[in-house]
């Protein structure tokens, strides 16, 4: 969590940093701050609140001039969100200034030792401890800033991406990472530092992504030197050409990123299968799968690990893999898996799903599985992310940047990748015949058009949203492939509207949740044709008998549910195995409209951050 931005060069740093922080607000947004070196001294402005609050404050507080600066947008770990705990933090001498993303786990003992040496602390943060530790090492060992950072980080347990400079040496910035991402953009006689490349995309396409346990000393006129933190060995930096465009990280006329990303799904899904699916040749080709086909075919079972929405995509995948490829699948919350001493064998294949590729628990689950000899495959959206690098092989979803905190296109593109994998393996194993395989390819190619159709219900969904926006609770029911979709619909409503919502397998309702149903309870039931339609219709009857308000997600032309439900939302017909890709769309729109009507901050819901890089 937390977004960090830095600049050293020939331009004014302030606008680059503030604009950059706005692009990184998805990483945390409970406080923000900036430190500039104005040629003579350090100017710091920081506040609880968002980057716009920081802008307002710095207008009054600082001169905003300087060619060197660092900025931070925070998601609080140590210390409540307030002005004092906001970053940047300054060392006791007032010389060193730091921004930090991550957690220093042994900060309490470090703080105690520094306190004995008469260091004092204003904030409750681990970051203020770190900057004073660096200062202490610098003084005690009589070393330069880079060396002091290195020695200090070797005493630290935890995760970090840091940027630090000394106001007495304004030609130099030191950065380091372990467990939190950090990119350095390289321009002409200038350098940009950020948690991801979005803050500097309009200035340079050349970037270095630091690896874990690496640090870099960046000197404006002398360039960048990358070293290993542990043994000081020099690393030859790999400069990547960025593919990202500015338009991809802007709202493009939509009111919110979430809405833009919902509407991007037809393109995102076709980008996901483009180049991998050929209906003419009747093949699916995915490099990461082809290269490791033996591992998949010999797998005893597939274990899927993920969190949140990605976990829901994993649950959909369980149905697809077992149904089509007949491979046993277990789906685990990464946070539980990593700590419960799971049985992992060398013939297990672990699939880790993550939009950001930075989720700490998923990353830890991968490391655990690798240490036990399992083959680990990643399904990520963010290219070059930690999970993409840590896994043995993988497939990108190619959804493009997802900035809204609530995942939308990440979910449908993850399902698309996992479907392609299941089909490819089913073909290799002979568990699907050629006509079924062909039918799947045909239907998959039609999904983007059908998602476009589903999006046309937007105005109708807005009317339904208006009727139920004040409901305190909501249930989501689905069966089979659409049980995970019910979970995902409930999560979307909870996280952006703060309405309590639960997803259940429709048949489970009788085992408890049915007690909640009365005339005030809205119940979204996924009741599309194929699969368990008749069973779901019976469940709807049961709800109706208890006067629940039914919002049915139905296949175009449905008549049976129309008669029973209070409202219906139609989606085009498709195969049952692909139905989650369509049935998710109205649920995303429903939660979006309810949240907007309630005046919630759709793109930045309270207490959340886009990538959860702490456990
Ligand atoms: O980046 P990841 O896919 O690993 O993130 C996992 C979850 O944190 C994420 O899906 C979260 O649940 C979203 N806010 C859901 O909309």
Q: Beta-strand percentage?
A: 15-25%
Share of helix, binned: 25-40%
Radius of gyration (Å): 26 Å
Q: Within the largest sheet, what's the order of strands?
A: 3-2-4-1-10-9-11-15
- CATH architecture of the largest domain, by name, is 3-Layer(aba) Sandwich
Bound molecules: 5-amino-5-deoxy-1-O-phosphono-D-mannitol
Uncertain regions spanning at least 5 consecutive residues = none
CATH class designation of the largest domain:
Alpha Beta
In CATH, the homologous superfamily of the largest domain goes by the name Glucose-6-phosphate isomerase like protein, domain 1
User: Would you count the extended β strands for me?
Assistant: 27
Termini separation comes to 10 Å
Output the number of helix runs: 20
The CATH topology annotation of the largest domain reads as: Rossmann fold
How many discrete domains?
3
Shape: globular
Which structural class do the helices and strands define? Answer: alpha/beta
